[in-house]
Each structure stands twice: as structure tokens, then as C-alpha cells.
Amino acid sequence: MNIIIICLDSLRQDHVSFYHQGKPAFEGIPACRTPNIDAFAQQCVAFENAYPCGLPTIPIRMELMTGQFSLPYRPWQPLAPTDIPMAEILRKEGYVCGLISDTYHYRAPGMNYHRGFNAYHWIRGQEYDPYNSAPTRRNVTSYVNENYPPQWRQLVAQFLANTDDFTQETDWFPAKVVEQACDWLKKNRCHEKIFCWIDSFDPHEPWDPPKRFDTYTDPSYKGQRLIMPMGGQAAAWATEEQIAYIRGLYAGEVSFVDHCLEPLFTCLAENGYFDDSIIVLLADHGHPLADHGKFLKGADRLYSELLKVPFLVRLPNGAPRRTKALVQFPDLLPTLLDLIGLKNDATSMHGRSFAPVLLGQEEKHREAVIAGYHAGVDRCIRDGIWSYIQRPEGQTDELYNLLEDPRETRNLIDVYPQEAVRLASYFGNYWRRRAAHIVKGIQGEYEVASGPVI
């Protein structure tokens, strides 16, 4: 049985039309269309409640690749010598392993997430990747407003320099990732067993979709093309019109990524991979779009827009359906090993196989999940109904009924404190940076760390 993982970065569940069923995420912006992911989802077991544990990009991939939790002990760091990633496990079992990615954090100085793969292909130039040192030929002031400080202007300038020569849709990063992935899949079909990890950094910011897919922004908008939102309270640096425009750019980026996936799904079908492969499509996390006042990821933004992602598993002879079973990312590797007859390899992993859910034998997996940042104090604990956010000392905790209030707008901590107490009891103080007293800007440094822009 082959294993193929398609990992997307920063894709919100509510921007995949299979999940949102035509309901727009924001008033005034059309619901994002993802016809290719939708068609694939119709063949899958589609999880509505699959969650990362330790955020963001690199700790999440550590969880996916090793079956271990990164909270509470793993910051953003390379694979440790003692880590045993998926590629090393499968390679010992006769798998030929390939990694195709434009996620530049994998290969930033000191990083080693390509360890164990027989082959790895890098697509350069994403985000702040130090790919082009020549200054951009475009005017940076067309991509920032008067509130952007020099550091943020430098970040935007690096991305513009990296993409100055893009003239056609095939130049964009997700198209290149899919092109090289299809090439690898075709050439390596001769092997008895393959493991392919396809990792697209898009729809991660900056959001600069090709013109044909920039259909979610207001055509009458005359301001700057704000492809890279800043952190902090959005109202402090952007107008309502600019906020809506940025949201539209994100939807356009998602729609373009979906378009780029079409040839990948065609390649998988035409080369027989649908017949003998476990294929997983997921996102590492979502992305706040000022739903609760702020753009960008961060320890204080543990709401559904960051935590809820598409998570689709296709089995060769599986029965497609939706499931509300709660799973966490460290559960993925034990599940895959279980499905290919190697479940004993997962006995030392934190994750637990949800193969019984995939096979229709169970409808439940975990009672609750936990998420947060290693360097942050905030933690989010959820079950199928409630979301409890533990805040630092001096801040009010938050409790939301996800069924009645999916946008998390009404804090019910004073109405149902017993639910907060119950959820908190699932995870001890070991999971927190400080002891929890029941009921009562981190992301930026990670992103910049992989490049020279300061």
C-alpha cells in the first residue's frame, strides 16, 4: 500500500466549499470555491474535527511526521537526533520516500525535516526565503499602507523580489509544487511501495493570487494591494475596506491552490495510485482574518479560524462519509502504520490510531483535544460541543458553544463555568506553561527566523 500526504499551509476549513456548503465566511465576500478539493473529498472519509496540538508550522509537522505531541515541550526546532520520522520508519520497510515542497522552513539553516527521504525537491522563493538578493523592481508602496513600519516593508519587498519574474500561472509556487510532485509520482511508479509527502506553503500569506483568481475582492477598490497583513488589532492599521480586500485576496489564493491541485488528482488517477494508496489531504492550521480583530497566527488567537482545517483520508476501497470524530495530528502516523500492518511500530507514540473510524467500526476517537503554542500561555481545549480557552493571569477565560455559536462570538464562561472545569480536567498542568487557575506576538519571530530579513 502506497502512502501519499498532501499538506497545505494555512487553509481554513470554512474556505473549502465541501465544508462550508455555500455559506460565505464573511459578509460581502463570496463563498470560496474549491471544486477540485470538493471532488476529492467526495471519495474520502472527511473529518470535521481534526486538530493540531502544538502550533505553528514546524511543531505541527513534527507531530504529523513522528506521531508525537509537540506540546508542551517542543518549540520551533529541527528534528532531534532521537526523533524517528515517518520517512525513516517507512524506508526500513522497503518504501521509496519522496518529499516535494516549497515550505522553506524545512530547509532553512539548521533545519532537517527532509531527513530519511530518498529524494527531496525544493521550490525556492516562498514568503521571506532569501532567494533573490537583488531589490524588487516593483514599487513597495503599492503593497503597503502608511501604517506599515520599515521591517514589514522589508518583508513585503523580499517576497516581491522573489516573485518579480512571475508572468504566467505556472510560475506560481503551488503550480510548481504540483508539477514536480506529478513528475516524481510518474517516475517512481515502478517501485513496489512509495511514500510521497507533497507540501505546499500556499495558501499561506503573502496572498497574491494570479489575476484570473482574484475574483473575491471588490473590483471598485482603489487602494494598495495589501498582500501581507500585519499583526495586532487590524483596526489600528487598516480600514474596513482594506480588511475586506485582504480577506478577498486570501479567498483568491485558496481558489488558485485548488486549481493547481487538479493535475495532481488527475496524475494520481491516471497512474493507478487511487487503486493502491492511502491518500491524505490536510492543512497544518487555518488563518485568522480579523474574525476576532486580528490577522495572522498567534497564541491569543485559538479560535476555529486558526484551528479547524480540512482533513480528508481516501482509502482504495473505503466508504466515503463525514465524521465528527475528534482526532489530533499525532494520531495520523499511528493510523497509517496500523492500516499497512505496522501498528506495533506505533506503541511508543503519543498518537492513537483512528483506523476504526476510517473503517466505519467506530464513530468516536478522542474525548477532547488541546491546542496552543509552546511559547504561549493560552490553551484551547475542545470536545464536540464546547471550546474552552484558558487565558493568562489577569485575562478572562472564554467558553463557546460551537454548535450554537460557531463564530465564537458569545463568551459563556460565567453561564456554564462547570463546562470549563470539565474540559480543563482532561489535561493536567503539565500541558501548560503556568499552573491553570480554572475559570477566572509569537508567530512573527518564527516566520522571520527562516530568512535574513530583520
For the termini, the CA-CA separation is 45 Å
Average residue-wise pLDDT: 95
Which radius of gyration do the C-alpha atoms yield?
A: 21 Å
Based on DSSP secondary structure assignment, what is the total number of beta strands? Answer: 13
Q: What shape does the CA trace take?
A: globular
- Proportion of beta-strand residues: 15-25%
**Main sheet specs:** 8 strands, mixed
Secondary structure: helix percent: 25-40%
Question: In terms of topology, how is this protein built?
Answer:
Blueprint: E1 2-8, H1 17-20, H2 35-41, E2 45-51, E3 54-55, H3 57-66, H4 86-92, E4 96-101, E5 119-122, H5 150-163, H6 173-187, E6 194-200, H7 240-270, H8 273-276, E7 277-283, H9 304-307, E8 311-314, E9 321-328, H10 332-339, H11 355-358, E10 369-373, E11 379-382, E12 386-390, E13 398-401, H12 417-424, H13 443-449
Parallel strand pairs: 1-6, 1-7, 2-9, 3-10, 4-5, 4-6
Antiparallel strand pairs: 2-8, 7-8, 10-11, 11-12, 12-13
Describe this structure in words.
By secondary structure, the chain is α/β, with parallel strands linked by helices. The protein contains 13 helices and 13 strands. The strands form two sheets. Strands 5-4-6-1-7-8-2-9 form an eight-stranded mixed β-sheet, with helices on both faces. A five-stranded mixed β-sheet has the order 3-10-11-12-13. A hairpin with a 5-residue loop joins strand 10 (369-373) and strand 11 (379-382). The longest helix has 31 residues, at 240-270.
